[in-house]
Amino acid sequence: MKFNKILSAMALAATMLATGCHKSLEYSDVVFFTGTESSPVTNMYVDGPSSMGVTVTSSCKMTSDVDVTLAIDPAAVDTYNAQTGASYKMLPEGSYQLSSDRVTISAGSNVSSSALFEITTMEDFEDGALYCVPLKITSTSNGMGILGASQTQYVLINQIITTKCVNLEQSWYFSVPSMMGDASLSDMGVCTMECRVFMNSFYSASSNPGIASVIGVEENFLLRFGDISCDKNQLQYAGRGASVTSSTHFNTGQWDHIAVVDTGSELTLYINGEADQTLDSSTKSAINLAWDYMEGFHIGRSERGRYMNGCVSEARVWNRALTSVELKNNQCYVSPDSEGLVAYWRLDESEDGSTVKDLTGHGYDAVSSKGSITWFENIKCPVVE
User: Fold this and answer.
1) How many CB atoms lie within 10 A of CB 18?
2) Is the four-CA dihedral 275, 281, 284, 286 of positive or negative sign?
3) What is the spatial distance between Cα 247 and Cα 46, in angstroms, rounded to a whole number?
4) What pLDDT, on the 0 to 100 scale, is given for residue 37?
5) Claim to verify: residue 361 and residue 212 sit in the same structural domain
6) Are residues 166 and 313 in the same domain?
7) Which of 134, 159, 184 is the last residue of a domain?
8) Is 36 helix (H, G, I), strand (E, B) or coil?
9) How much helix, strand and coil, in percent to the nearest 5, is found in the chain?
10) Counting beta carbons within 10 angstroms of the beta carbon of residue 225, is it exposed (0 to 12), middle (13 to 18) or buried (19 or more)?
11) Structure pTM?
């Protein structure tokens, strides 16, 4: 989302501060939420009661104390969703508060006192729900103007989920035998395939041929690291007589979200929700996830020992093209009844110790190649630097 007006207003504000706030006929001084010069969005990461300070800045120093009135504006959530294509909700009633509806910019200063926005409880939070709290500047005691593009600060609430995952190493992988021969998966015109990955190591260029398969069906719709045509730590889509390789080079020891989205006319690799590389898929055959070639759909393997050495979490297949916004926002969880979700493996639990259920209820359960699963505990999502 672009807010070009903010940039020009901030450039003006900087000039005014440097020159003692000389006004012209065209411009006047304004107030705005501190830190919203380039974007009105603030991310807040929570795994329990939390708080963040909120201040207001003026484009020049005040000659006397000025009170600025604040409010929470639930209706603005719909405005934000319409502007961004997101699907945020307002926080549950009783789970938050603003410590004061007024801050003061003291004489001789251009930054106000602080109010606290607080998450008081997460008891009524929905798993995986996206929450947004719009804070709004409503008035100033001296009648000073409010910068329109920064009048509302959108606080995006990111729930930090503590979960676990499986570590696919030493030729260990999952297969999904119930996908083979399923007619509903044999002629997919549109598809999104995604997961979170944590690589322990990448295979050397001499190992068959330096490929570490992550998820999908060999020779049809597959995400993998490495090939004879690229470096071992580059992501590659391969299938249907085509391949596309990421410009991104990945590191071991960190979580990343990877996805491939094929709209039927264009196929795009996404890294952490950002488009990386694209190819024309309009002349390619339909996606066939039911193909039994090399025993079909796998997580952590494809053919001839092309195993992945790392962790996988939140693996999903969709029959629609997810947007960049959706890929960014839904990395840690989605509702199993989400529109277009074909298969969903969280890879965080198993009822029998060797099978991971498909949470959609469609029956595409993932079966471990080595029986009992070994779990990695206390995995945080998202990862906050």
Assistant:
1) 9
2) positive
3) 32
4) 86
5) yes
6) yes
7) 159
8) coil
9) 10, 40, 45
10) buried
11) 0.83
Of 21-35, 141-155, 179-193, the poorest mean pLDDT is in: 21-35
CATH number, residue 10: 2.60.40.1740
Q: 181 pLDDT exceeds 50?
A: yes
Strand pairing report for 310-318 and 161-168 = antiparallel
What's the confidence (pLDDT) of residue 26? Answer: 55
- Cα–Cα dist 248/303, whole Å: 24
Lowest mean pLDDT among 5-9, 165-169, 218-222: 5-9
Structure tokens at 211: 């490929």
- Please spell the DSSP secondary structure of 5-25, one letter per residue: HHHHHHHHHHHHHHTT----S
E-state strands within 174-306:
174-175, 191-199, 212-217, 221-227, 230-239, 242-249, 255-262, 266-271, 274-280, 297-299
**Domain CATH number, residue 348:** 2.60.120.200
CA distance 303 to 219: 10
Considering Cα of 350, then 354, then 355, then 356, what sign does the dihedral take? positive
Asked if residue 357 and residue 234 are part of one domain, the reply reads: yes
Q: Name the strand (E) or helix (H) holding 81.
A: helix 76-84
Task: Dig out the tokens for 24 from the structure.
Answer: 């012209």
3-state DSSP assignment of residue 276: strand
- Give CA 310 to chain center in angstroms: 21
* Domain endpoint, select from 159, 193, 214: 159
Boundaries of domain holding 43: 4-159
- Could you tell me how many residues make up the chain? 385
